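Hypothesis: this fold can be encoded by more than one sequence.
Test: take the structure tokens below, design a sequence, compare later.
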């Protein structure tokens, strides 16, 4: 049975931003950078994933980068699981296989099966940018336009990723009691 959870924007915003809201406006990709950071904190990769870079959390951006330099600015001085965040960019997935997280840009939508086939050989958290069929192809997290996302728990398990119980607890769908919401 395929597990599929879809979460509302309010839950995502709660996970992404701890600071109070100010007059500053954020783009979709500023919010997505924050979400990548939060997911990095709640997902554990096996120790062998850090053999080459024990003090770094590498985030790869595959394809036509929608973040610009904002993602580096967001990650600057931040750590996920005690590791400094570093950003790498590439047009070919083979150049990002040493990354711990790979954000797959929309420009790569026609190559999803090939990308997932390559990344699933490694403990890599794959995140799709609103790509149809990403979840079904075995991608782990898919973000859509409204920052709602899906998590493919089976694909995470196959990639040897552990999802922190706190994330699961926060993201549990509401339950009905006595016929009331």
């Amino acid at each position: 049975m395929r597990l599929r959870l879809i979460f509302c924007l309010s839950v995502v915003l709660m996970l992404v931003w701890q600071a109070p809201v100010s007059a500053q406006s954020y783009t979709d990709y500023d919010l997505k950078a924050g979400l990548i950071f939060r997911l990095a904190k709640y997902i554990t990769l096996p120790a062998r994933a850090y053999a080459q870079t024990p003090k770094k959390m590498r985030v790869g951006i595959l394809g036509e980068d929608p973040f610009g330099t904002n993602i580096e600015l967001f990650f600057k001085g931040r750590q996920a699981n005690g590791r400094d965040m570093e950003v790498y960019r590439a047009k070919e997935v083979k150049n990002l296989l040493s990354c711990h997280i790979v954000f797959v840009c929309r420009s790569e939508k026609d190559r999803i099966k090939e990308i997932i086939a390559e990344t699933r050989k490694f403990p890599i958290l794959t995140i799709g940018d609103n790509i149809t069929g990403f979840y079904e192809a075995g991608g782990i997290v898919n973000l859509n336009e409204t920052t709602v996302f899906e998590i493919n728990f089976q694909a995470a398990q196959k990639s040897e990723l552990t999802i922190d119980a706190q994330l699961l607890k926060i993201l549990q769908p509401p339950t009905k009691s006595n016929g009331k919401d």
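The chain has one domain: 5-14+27-44+52-170. The domain at 5-14+27-44+52-170 is CATH 3.40.50.2300 (Rossmann fold).
Hypothesis status: open.
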